Amino acid sequence: xAIRFSNDCSTLSLSQLSxxxxxxxxxxxxETLLRILQRxxxxxxxxEDSTFQVVGYIVALSDGMISAFVPMLEVLPxxxxxxxxxxxxxRMMNNLKSLPVIDLVCNVTLxxxxxxxxxxxxxxxxxxxxxxxxxxAQ
Length: 138
Ligand SMILES: CC(C)(COP(=O)(O)OP(=O)(O)OC[C@H]1O[C@@H](n2cnc3c(N)ncnc32)[C@H](O)[C@@H]1OP(=O)(O)O)[C@@H](O)C(=O)NCCC(=O)NCCS
Fold this sequence. Notes:
By secondary structure, this protein is α+β, with helices and mostly antiparallel strands. The protein has a single domain, classed as Gcn5-related N-acetyltransferase (GNAT) (Aminopeptidase), CATH 3.40.630.30. The chain is 20% helix and 24% strand. Strands 1-2-3-4-5 form a five-stranded mixed sheet, with helices on both faces. The model has no long low-confidence stretch (mean pLDDT 92). The structure holds coenzyme A. Coenzyme A binds next to β4, α2 and α3.
């Protein structure tokens, strides 16, 4: 299995984006992910070479001057534990290397994954509001 990484989501189609968000209480549709990938300041996708299916992605929102926030990273379950998530983070960090502040929020179980990627532990305050009907409002 060969995995190709790309920063370019401009030619992505919906049929390449199935299977994501399965662990969400109300998974948003593939259209939502396509818009997220195309609207984020930076996106990196991992695609299986033979099928063109996207098997993982990471996005960052940034002011382009000082800071960036990494709100989403996901690898499809059958492709996990093969280094794809780490490779996505490394490629995103390379895209963000000129910015001094990179934030992300994760639960404690993922702490070791991000520690391996040189992120430090801080205290964050978050509020998640899952509103499925608003996913395509914009
Ligand atoms: C987190 C995630 C992206 C990791 O992707 P991945 O491709 O499996 O990551 P890697 O193969 O590069 O993992 C490298 C190491 O990080 C650690 N790690 C990976 N996923 C982990 C998890 N869910 N919990 C704890 N440690 C984890 C392991 O030590 C792993 O090494 P191993 O495979 O030898 O056990 C993937 O599990 C995922 O999509 N999870 C659901 C979405 C999510 O939680 N995203 C993060 C939002 S902050």
